[in-house]
Design brief:
By secondary structure, the chain is an alpha+beta fold. The chain contains 1 helix and 3 strands; from the N terminus they run H-E-E-E. It has a 3-stranded antiparallel sheet, with no helix packed on it. The protein starts with a helix and ends in a 16-residue tail after the last strand.
């Protein structure tokens, strides 16, 4: 009975040790929503979403934070 308990504990420990690296690997992924910080002012400049599609990483600017003294850029109208 004692050997059975010891082998059970050993099996659980080994399983946990083998699963741990897989859990740590996700933390290294750049996929997600990132905040871009201005180097000089230290204030947020934009929110950028990084996604993975077909094995490639793609970035999309979700939102831009303009400084109070900056005007919004004018978008040109598209022709129909």
């Amino acid at each position: 009975m004692r050997i059975l308990k010891q082998s059970g504990v050993l099996t659980l420990t080994l399983a946990a040790a083998l699963m741990a690296p897989a859990a740590w690997a996700d933390n290294a992924s750049p996929v997600g929503l990132w905040k871009n910080i201005d180097d000089t002012s230290g204030k947020p400049r934009a929110l950028i979403r990084i996604a993975e599609a077909n094995g490639t990483l793609q970035g999309k600017i979700e939102k831009v934070f303009l400084a109070p003294n900056k005007a919004r850029p004018v978008r040109s109208a598209r022709a129909p």
